[in-house]
Every structure is written in structure tokens, then in C-alpha cells.
Amino acid sequence: MRYHSIRRAASAAALLLAAGVLAGISQPAANAAATPTTVSVNARAGLAAMPATGLGINDAIWDQELGTNAVADLLKSAGVTMRRYPGGSYADIYHWADHTAPGGYVAPNTDFDRFMAGVRRTGAQPMIIANYGTGTAAEAAGWVRQANVVKKYGVKYWTVGNENYGNGHYGSAWEADNHPDKSPRQYATEVVAYADAMKAVDPTIKVGAVLTIPAGWPDAIVAEGDAGSWNQVVLSIAGPKIDFVDVHWYPGGGSAAEAMGKTAHLTDALYIVRQQIAKYAGANSGRIGISLTETNVGVGPNTQPGAIFLADTYATLLANGVFTVQWWNVHNGIGNVSTVAGQTDYGDFGILSSGTCTSDGTTCEPALNTPFAPYHALSLMNSFARPGDQFVRAATGDPLVTAHAVRRSNGDVNVLLLNRDPDNARDVTIDYAGFAPATGAVTVHTYTNGAAGIATALAGTATSQTLPPYSLTVVRARDSRVVTGPPSAPGQPTASGVTDRTATISWPAARAGAHPIAKYEVYRQFGAVSEQLGETPGTSFTVGNLRPGSRYTVNVLARDTAGNVSWASPPLTLTTGTPAQSTCTVKWTYTTDWSSGYVASVDITNTGDRAHPSWTLTYEWPTTWQQMNGGWNATWTETGRTVKVTSLDGSGPLAAGGGTVNVGFVGGYSGPNVTPTAFTLNGTLCTTLTP
């Protein structure tokens, strides 16, 4: 994407190993807000487990430091567990067999074997991008053979292409693509051929296809001649053959505050991607994973905004079940130089300095391989969450303080706290549910604005901390209780029989510990609060009194006869429907979409036996970043997230027994565009029809 500019690193200078996880770095004094911020951590509200491939990074063949031991060791110190090769859009011009990229620059000592040596030294897993743009399925299969049969590297993850929707089919063209047909249909058909050829060599590998991120261009656009959007077409054709989908996210933003705030979009973006997979990818689509292999922030990329953005983005995505998140990239080179919160930002999208200078020589970066702020954020993430830890819900009431939490394998809880206020400290009070922290001072890891590394010290308690301005903090809370032989967590719940008001939740049984299992408790996540929906001695429970057209995330916990409670099960997210029978129906259709706005057509039908002389249709936007920008055939009003559509004077009644009116409007969105699902006509909940 736009960050894929080629930067040739300067000659090797002094290497700074970032064993820079330093102790005892002083923190700047600052006034805290008068009222402490309350942070809620709920260990009963389980999210995804931290995967072994979670902390990822991009390598590029134009980076002459790619294969060095110094870089491998720096990445190992930061806890990197996955490295991607051969580098963004270069993947679609790169030929592995002769290590060439026609039209691009290939640095010395960056071939596949050198990359794999660095991966092994780091202790990471590789992710390889097979050349779709100028390559073939046979070439990709040959790479699999070389990697896993000849060299026995055991490369598991392979993606077909990089950002192949950027091939000119939708107008903009930055991704190489030699195929005469540049449509999503052609890409998907080739993905099937690639997957078949590659898995014929090694059936154990996982093959991924490229999708667009919701609300990121060209998401939702349907080009002339296509049967649907890029994601719809690719999933419909290639879904049965792939093991994961790959998306990128560059949210942009006019200021550091705006850019950092866009991490709030990620949960809904993933929700939409999973909806698309379930709808279009065919049977057993639940097996398809999600990787996010490129992200960066548009403002302050190598200073504190970049660090805070990285930690928040990684934690949010991993908590929502993405199996790897990968920063763009290791080295990138100097860009537009500015001052951000008192620090020099070189406009460099790498986590390590390239040691380069501006074209006029007036400003130079620090010595080659000096860690930038996002590097320290990645290191802090490694202190916060390790493979196997379970993310749990955490929330705050302060818009400038963000919280994440994990339950460690030993039962302890780590809390990640991000203070996005560049000027003021925050006193925080941490409340826990389902966990009783030990008293006394706790180990705290902190990265502050402009610091050379992470400070580690005993400070505050598990329930009370002061967050420096513009800082990242990990609080390590020890469990005060010693529980012998608790039951294991129940397995992954599933939902069946989902209606507008009910759903049946089922789960694999937990294993008993020192005592027999007495019952299972089913909880709904309500922010960082758990609301118990019911309990049962069995492994299935039907939940009632649900709200139509609403999204629910639930967990199941096991309780034994001694009162010991298990960890939370993995989460289950379901969305209730609308009544199967009602006196009205609503059909919502997108007629055109341009990735930030759309035109929608809405058919309102009166299926009852009474005419409506006048009528009002009401619905709620699912998010705060959606809006109505004017409509027709009715009077449209919007108050907050509530939209009312009222019949025009003199338009006549909505007839009984099938009378229909069509209305339309222009909508806008600055984040994932989640479609409303529940509509009321004159106060009656309608049946929503799927187009």
C-alpha cells in the first residue's frame, strides 16, 4: 500500500541491541486528573487465547539488514513470533528461484535461505507470500517443494498475493498483475489453482486468500461485470479451498489522537469479515482463520502515537481471534520529519532505524537499528501476553485511557493500560471480577514518551496505579488464592436454533479436577460486566428473553461441588434475528457503495390486516460512525443513532395485506458499516428480509 516505498538502508553503523528492556528508567512527573479513572477487568468474560504466531512483523527483500544476526536478535528480544516475506507489494514481482524482482530493488543477502536463517534465530514462524501478480501456481508449488521437501523448513503459512485488489480493477493500480482479467473472479479462480498445486506438494500447509478490510477501499464496491464485491466473489469461489483470509489495515487520521482512536473500529471490522466468511465461503467455513499482516499509523509512526497504536491494535485484534498481527515493517527509511509530543518523528514506518537522512542531508535518523518507539511497544506486548494466555474483557470510562487484560496460564492477570493524553497523568483504580488480586506492590512495566527503553519496577498495587502522560503500562497482578485441582474450561460453545428471542448454546464438557463438576454457568458479556443468563448440570442451555436483531457474546464456566470455578470458555458471538411472523416486513438493499458511503433502498411492506393511514419506521445505527445524509419518498430524521422514516403528508395509506412503499437514502460511514437488523413500523417489530 502507500507505505511500501523502497528505502535502501545506509551502510552498517553501530548496532544497538534492544536488550533495552531497561530497569529503573525515571518517569516524568505530571499532574494527574483529580478523579481517578476506573478500570474494570472481568476474568469471567473470556476472549480469544494468545496464539503462538501473534506478534508478527514484515521483512522486505529491499532491506539489506533482513538477514543479519543483529536484526534477528532484536526481533527475538521483542518477542516476535512470525516474520513475513518477501515484503508487501514486492511479493507480486518476486521470483524465489533466482531471487529477482524485475522492476524493483533486491538487496544483497536477502534470499529465502538467508531469511529462514534469521527466522530460526529469532525463534519465529515464517509466513510466505506466493507471487500472484507475475507468478504462477507452478512457481508457488515449486517454492513449497523447496521449502518443505528439499530444505525441510516446515513453512506452514502461505498467502496467495499481497494487495491484489489494487491491480487497477477498481481504478487505482499499485499492485503488479499480469493477468489480462483483473477481476476478483480471476483472482479467486487462481487461488483455487494455487491451493491445489501447493497442497499437492505438502498437504499440511495452510493457504490464505487476500480480502479487503471493511470500510477500507475498495471494500463493498462492485465493479462493472462483477457478481459482487471483492470479498463476496473471492470467498464464494475460493472459500472451500483456503484455510485463512488475509487483510491489511491502514486507518489514517488527520491527527495522532484521531489515528489512535480508530482502533475502536477493529472489533466491528472483524465481525463483518466473519459474517462474510459464514455467508459466502461454503460449508465448514468456521475453520477459516484471519490474519492481519500489515498495519501502521499515519501520524507519528516512530514516536509515541505509533507505540500506543501498535499495542492497542495488536491487543484488540488478538483478543478477537486474529492468529497473527504484523507491523509494517522492520526497516523503511526516513520520510516527512516532524515533532510529535516533543520528540522527533522521522516519518519512518519501520520499528528500527534505517540510519538514513533526508535528501538535503539536514536531518538524519539515529544509528542503524536503533529501536523506535513501536519496537518498545512490541516488547511490552511480549511482557503482557504470552501464547496460551486468555484475553479477558477490560474497559474504562475515560476516552483517553484504554485497557486490555489477559489471564495467565498460572491464574495471574496482566493488565495493559494506555494513556493517550500527551500532557497529563492518570490515576487509575482497577476493579476485578472473577479474580482476587494479592495485596502489596506489584511488578509494573512502563514505556513513557521519549524513553530509551521499558522501565520495570515494583510500583503501586494491583488495584491502584498512576499512568504517566502518553504512556504504556503493564500491571502484573498475582492471584491471592491457591486453588487445587479446579475444573478445566468448557470447550468452544456453539449456537443453534437462534430466533429473534431465543438461542440454544451447547459446549464440550469440562474436565473435572479435584472435585466433580456440579453445573455450568452461561454468561453474557455486557461490556466488562458479565450477566448470567442461566445455569444447567448438562452441556446445553436454551437462553430466552433475548433482544431481536442484537449481537451477543457469551461464555460458559464450570463450577465443581467445592465451589471452584473454571476459566471461561472461548467466546461465542451470535446475532439474534427478527420475528418469523409479523404484520410488517422490511427489506434493505445496498444499490451502490463507494467505501465511505452508499445508497440504500428500503422496501416497507404492511402484511397485517389493517391499513396504516400514516406510518413511522424506526431503526438504530449499530455504531457511532454511521449516519444518514438525506433520503427520499419519506421524511427522514436522525437523532443520535436513532433514525425515523415518516410517511409524507398526502402520500396515502400503507394498504393492508401487502401494501408496500419504497424509500431510499444516502448513508455515510467512517468505520465498518454494520447493517441495521431490527426495524419497527408504528411500534411493531418487523420481519427483516435478506436480499
Automatic annotation (TrEMBL):
Keyword Signal among record annotations: yes
Origin species: Phytohabitans flavus
Segment forming the signal sequence: 1-23
Occurrences of domain Fibronectin type-III (ranges): 489-579
Taxonomic superkingdom: Bacteria
GO biological process terms held by the UniProt record: polysaccharide catabolic process
Keywords: Carbohydrate metabolism, Glycosidase, Hydrolase, Polysaccharide degradation, Signal
Official protein name in the record: Alpha-L-arabinofuranosidase
A GO molecular-function descriptor: polysaccharide binding
Record domain CBM2: where: 577-689
Pfam family, one: fn3
